[in-house]
Give the backbone structure.
Amino acid sequence: MPHPSPLTAFHLIVAPRRHVAAFYDLDVGEQRHVWDVVGVLRERIAATIPVEGFDVGFRDGDQGDPAAHVEVHLVPRPKGARPQLPDGIEWVDLDS
């Protein structure tokens, strides 16, 4: 789904169907499915706009909060720009 306050155009959130607080609470198949979705979205975005790369952020929910839910951010990096990535999210540069 689109991020409500995007860092760049096409900043998306991928969330698993099963409600869990942390990414590693998902089983291996669910983790793989999230990565597969991220891969498809990367291809579609890169075919739509010029990008230098992508950052992926993992945000686990508060373990003590029963409503907490893991989310994965996919942030395209437009050519010549590097968005300021917020703290509190574990970021991975997919292109380094």
